[in-house]
Amino acid sequence: MIKKVGILTAGGDCPGLNAVIRGAVKTAEYNGVETYGFIEGYKGLLENKYIKLDSYVTSGIIHKGGTILGSNNKTNTFAIPVKKENGEVEYVDKSYEIAERLKQDNFDCLIIVGGDGSLKSARDYMRRGLNVIGVPKTIDNDVPYTDTTFGFDTAVGVATEAVDRLHTTAESHGRIMVLEVMGRYAGWIALEAGIAGGADTVLIPEIPYDLNKVLDKINQRRSMGKNFSLIVVAEGAMPKEGTISIRKTEENGGGLDTIKLGGAGEYVAREIEKLAGQEARATNLGYVQRGGDTSHYDRILATEYGSAAMQLAIDGKFGEMITLLNGKLTHVSLDDVAGKDTEIGSKSSNLKLVDLNGDLVNTARRIGICLGD
User: Fold this and answer.
1) How far apart are CA 232 and CA 269, in angstroms?
2) What is the pLDDT of residue 344?
3) What does the pLDDT look like over 264-301, one tens digit per residue?
4) Beta strands of the chain (E only): which ranges?
5) Which of 17, 18, 79, 103 could bond to 91 as cystine, CB 3.0-4.6 Å?
């Protein structure tokens, strides 16, 4: 019987994280298990900073965005930068040391809530001998073996409202309005918000786009007397023969999330204005998608995930990720989720991308949305 479980929230903040924590803590208390939360994700794990969690601490947090534990998307415990005497920086693997300390502190299991990079680290800690359980977290909805990840529904709702609001401005001024939304490798947010908001063009990472195709759509609307257009662009979308739009790179690309995307929407607006000879304006929705209150769907899903993850720990089923798959709450191996690569720090993965032959894409095409191809 386990007695002590740690939990951490890693990577970018996401609506539903607090509901996961609350669900896990309530399930633990019901079964006589103590829960401790590491502060600021893997940074807290590295610095051994954690707090006791109970129903009093987690009271009233189910609806709140963000995470009461804090998060960090820069600390890679498998490659910590250490400055040498000569000024050079070397990267040191602290994971073995951390794993041993957790065992000495009598942690029976560590629940890691995170996206692709964080779940890779979870798998690698499992290989260090820790009892680990993963919980999928990302508004991008790109974690494999999941129907949906919590936070996605909230983000799509925010993005859809933004498209709705831009629609009235575009129509009033006869402009081309471009909305950039999150989606580094997968275009789920852009596609669903584009369909829900009535966008004319949606550009996603899975389909390198041709701006001439976008121009054709604009001209088609003009011929119908529609002198405005709405374009939704995922941050990871790129033109044919082009590259992804990078705003800046930190720590030479080391760490878990140091390549910052940005500018895809501005690029599309600038270039399409030249081609169309019509004013185009870009709006980057940015972090607005990740903040604020959590939708009712994400509150329920996140609570289910947190409770089920703690139940897995109680049942001694380690090395798994809890998931909603084919409409049923279940679990899959972290080895499968994190890809088949064996090298620590490898960036290869099996991210869940938009199915180009799936219902969403087919629906978008049937209703006349241009996907840039």
Assistant:
1) 11
2) 46
3) 999 999 999 999 999 999 999 989 998 889 999 999 99
4) 4-9, 34-38, 50-53, 80-83, 89-92, 109-114, 132-136, 176-181, 201-203, 229-234, 246-249, 259-261, 280-284, 320-325, 328-333
5) 79
Predicted TM-score (pTM) of this structure: 0.90
Q: What are phi and psi of 80, to 5 degrees?
A: -85, 125
CB 124 within 8 A of CB 311: no
Which residues, in sequence order, are CB contacts of 249 under 8 Å at separation 6+?
258, 259, 260
User: Which residue of the set 13, 108, 124, 140 is catalytic?
Assistant: 140
Domains of the chain are 4-150+294-337 (3.40.50.450), 155-290+355-366 (3.40.50.460)
Which H or E element spans position 102? helix 95-104
Give the C-alpha distances (Å, rounded to integers) separating 284 from 139, 181, 254, 256, 262: 16, 6, 26, 23, 8
Q: Is 116 a catalytic residue?
A: no
Place of tokens 């103590």: 34
CB < 8 Å & 24+ apart, contacts of 356-363: 356/206, 356/207, 360/191, 360/192, 360/195, 361/191, 363/195
* Number of residues that make up the chain: 373
Task: Quickly state the pLDDT bin for 125 (edges 50, 70, 90).
Answer: very high
